[in-house]
Write a structure and sequence with these properties.
single chain; 376 residues; mainly alpha; Serine Threonine Protein Phosphatase 5, Tetratricopeptide repeat; 2 domains; 23 helices
Length: 376
Amino acid sequence: MTTSKMRAALTAILLGTATMTALVLPAHAQAQVSARVGAALKEAQALATAGNYKAAMAKINEADGAPGKTPADNTIINQMRNFVAVKSGDTSTAAGAKAKFAMDYNARKWKDVIGAADTLRKHGALGAQEQLLIAQAYYSSGDFAGCSRYVKTLGNGDTALELAARCAYENGDEVTQRQALETLVSRGGKPEHWKSLLRLAERTRGLSDANTLDINRIRMLTGNIVTKDDYLLLAQLAVQLGNAAEAQSVTEKGIAAKVLNDERSTRLLNLAKTQAAANAANLQKNIAAGRAQGSGEALLRVGSDLASQGKGKEALPIVQEAIKKGLKDQANGQITLGRAYLAAGQKADAQKTFSSVKAPPKDQMVANLWTVVSRR
């Protein structure tokens, strides 16, 4: 969520005390208000409207001291007292404290908003909404460290997590930012949350080509492959790493979206089609050649290609065999196995496999992303 959208969302939850209107009792209630009380309160309202709050409150107290007050008298006296407190921002009352808090927020007086916490708490008026606004005040004032500290006390609602992610970003705290975004995407999977999380993932040091391909696969799954360069990067990585059928599918989607429409895209599509057809025709030969090798890299490429086509049940035994033969990149082997389980519809096995990837950190990060995808 952008800063402007977040501010709009938080402003929308400001309490109604920020809106101050004249008090008008229904006709039947007016008839029950005694003449002495009614006259004093009418003067109080005029004084408050003119900004003379001290005199207005004196008139309200005069009305409150009148003998023989009716229930309607007491009702309108309390309403008028709150009305003046709200208009004046009198922090000695809950209504006034909340009104001043709202007015300070709208006026962008961030220091006053942050400082209002104790006053609101004293009146029992420091609720979840007010706390979110205080956290936003920390952020808007540029106190990102203060924002991070404060927002940790606010639970894990979506708005609090969005604030936590933004403040962590400004602090350079990628761990907290990633945790907040992973929680957000695991709930609703909004494209904007995935976009932020995947941008963070792309900045991870030492990413292998396989890692980058996986991140872009997830971008495709979450609706974040949009531009020409997005489509081309994913398709080119897929071809490069032996997943030609996947590259063909991605390129065709880019053409259908009217994003890929130049000669380079056509050449890439033709290359992907040619290689995909060759891989399909030579599947058994490629499996046999992979089994003849001392390590499992060639078999893993075959299994990955099948998994990327959604042929999980065919991919599983091949990937498992590749892992048993031994791999230079064991973490990528486990991630590929998890993808095969996912393609086969075995989500629990996929999650267990992804969670087994503990190192290197870059691979654990990619495996965590796949775990979140598998829980959608």
